[in-house]
Amino acid sequence: MQIPTFLLRKLYVKGSLENVEDGFHFKIKNSISNATALAIEPIKVNGSEYPLNATVIRSGDTEITGDQIGADNSFPISVGVEIVLHIKGSPLPEGEHTIDISLTTKEVGKLAFDVKDSI
């Protein structure tokens, strides 16, 4: 089952992109169906790729780095629960940014979409 890009973009919490002391973060909130992430690809912002070990994914009490997600260590993506993706590195400059997000789920396979947000 392929999910249309316009629906995937609705997962992104608009206005959630913020600089923090050790990088930046943004939020997604699943409004489609419970899913299980088996892999995540490096987050890209304005075409620049950030390493998976610098991507910290938080949901409730669960925290994992992108390079730890795999078939033997999946990450639940529950409906209605916000997930914070914290990217360690330099803060982003003020202005609009394009964020590319791509992950593989057990239920529907690869999901890839991009969103625009501003700091």
Largest sheet: 6 strands, antiparallel
The CATH architecture term is Sandwich
H and E string: HEEEEEEEEEEE
How many strands in all? 11
> Which structural class best describes the helix and strand composition?
mainly beta
Overall domain count: 1
The radius of gyration over CA amounts to 13 Å
Summed over residues and divided by their number, the pLDDT gives a mean of 94
Number of helical regions: 1
Query: Share of helix among residues?
Result: under 10%
Beta-strand residue fraction: over 45%
What is the terminal-to-terminal distance? Answer: 34 Å
Poorly predicted ranges: none
CATH topology value: Immunoglobulin-like
The CATH C-level class name: Mainly Beta
Shape descriptor reads globular
Structure write-up:
By secondary structure, this protein is mostly beta strands. It has a single domain, classed as Immunoglobulin-like, CATH 2.60.40. The chain has one helix spanning 5-9, and strands spanning 18-20, 23-29, 35-40, 44-45, 48-49, 55-59, 62-65, 75-77, 82-88, 96-105, 109-118. Strand 10 (96-105) and strand 11 (109-118) form a beta hairpin. 20% of the residues are buried.
